[in-house]
Design goal:
By secondary structure, this protein is mainly beta. It has one domain. The protein is built from 1 helix and 5 strands; from the N terminus they run E-E-E-E-E-H. The protein has a 5-stranded antiparallel sheet. Strand 4 and strand 5 form a beta hairpin. It is globular and about 30 Å long. The protein starts with 10 loop residues before the first strand and ends in an 11-residue tail after the last helix.
Length: 93
């Protein structure tokens, strides 16, 4: 029997968006266990011109946002499950 995949297995890339709307890819990989409350990352945005296909934003009080971008299909499904959304594959086969 194989090991069951858990949210702890999922990798995300860290992004930020300043109050002027400038998006930065921070080149910092995060595991689900590094993220305090994944359900805070609710606003979905498609990415174009970046290695990841989408990012989920957590809005901050100063108008900026912290983002996490799923790096695997499993990570995408995990965050969508937390947000009550239907998971869609990251890559078309």
């Amino acid at each position: 029997m194989g090991q069951r995949e858990t949210d702890m297995d999922h990798k995300y890339m860290s992004y930020t968006c300043d109050s002027a709307g400038i998006v930065t890819r921070n080149h910092r990989e995060l595991l689900s266990s590094d993220i305090t409350d994944i359900s805070n990352y609710k606003r979905h945005e498609a990415l174009r011109g970046w290695p990841e296909l989408c990012v989920y934003w957590h809005s901050l009080a100063d108008g900026s946002a912290a983002g996490i971008a799923p790096m695997t299909d499993g990570a995408l499904k995990a965050i969508e499950r937390h947000n009550g959304q239907v998971a869609k594959g990251m890559k078309k086969s």
